[in-house]
Amino acid sequence: MLEAKAPMVMDCNVNPGFRIDLHIKELANALDTSLGIGAQLLLTAAVMKMMQALKVDGLESADHRALAKVEVTR
Predict the structure, then answer these.
(1) 3-class secondary-structure state, position 19
(2) Which residues of 21-33 are buried (b: 16+ CB within 10 A; e: fewer)?
């Protein structure tokens, strides 16, 4: 996977594969489930924030490679 995706990230190619909006949907399911069983998913929550930042920036249809565009200060 990394061999295929790394060159795309380096070229800033974020054309749709598995879109940000689908990641947000799946991450929301995971976080909702974790709340129901009392588990903390700290990294999942951090990734959700990054995905939501990309959505705010209008990249909800971009591939998850768009994570390379998230500013560290968010």
Answers:
(1) strand
(2) eebbeebeeebee
pTM exceeds 0.70: yes
Tokens (6 digits) for 54:
């990309």
Average pLDDT over residues 36-64: 93
Q: Are 3 and 10 in contact (CB under 8 A)?
A: no
C-alpha span between 46 and 50 (Å, rounded): 6
pLDDT, mean of residues 44-67: 90
Q: Which residues pair with 63 in a beta bridge?
A: 19
CA gap 31, 38 in Å, rounded: 10
